[in-house]
Design a protein that fits this description.
Oligomer: single chain
Number of helices: 5
Order of helices and strands: HHHHH
Radius of gyration: 25 Å
Strand content: under 5%
Length: 127
């Protein structure tokens, strides 16, 4: 079900405020966006296949240490495949969404504080 115009405006405003106020959170969460690291995925798959081969050889030759090493290599391959690359693209600029609002002095509190205050008043009223 699509969002109404009011809900879409509210969501856009919340996103702008998030990018303006919580830069650390955006940097942490936003780092996973972008293109997947195909080189890491391919390398991880190759390592997993080598681990499976070592596991099969260990079972076929009845050598438990080789099988355990194969399992550890498989696990390492999965970690290599799912780990994001260290070189992340720069996050989009926070000034792109704000036009003249950056020149105006901001109210102390902000949008999310107002929403939290309304929520707390509503909870107090219901109790």
């Amino acid at each position: 079900m699509p969002l109404s115009e009011q809900e879409q405006r509210l969501l856009d405003e919340m996103e702008r405020n998030l990018y303006q106020n919580d830069a650390d959170f955006v940097a942490t969460v936003g780092a996973r966006r972008g293109r997947p690291n195909y080189r890491g995925i391919v390398l991880g798959v190759i390592i997993v296949v080598l681990g499976i081969a070592a596991l099969i050889v260990g079972v076929a030759l009845q050598l438990p240490p080789v099988g355990v090493i194969g399992f550890i290599v498989m696990f390492a391959g999965v970690l290599v495949a799912i780990t994001p690359s260290r070189s992340t693209a720069p996050l989009r600029s926070t000034s792109a969404g704000s036009t003249s609002s950056s020149s105006k002095p901001r109210k102390s509190g902000g949008f999310m504080d107002a929403i939290n205050d309304r929520w707390e008043r509503r909870q107090d009223r219901d109790n």
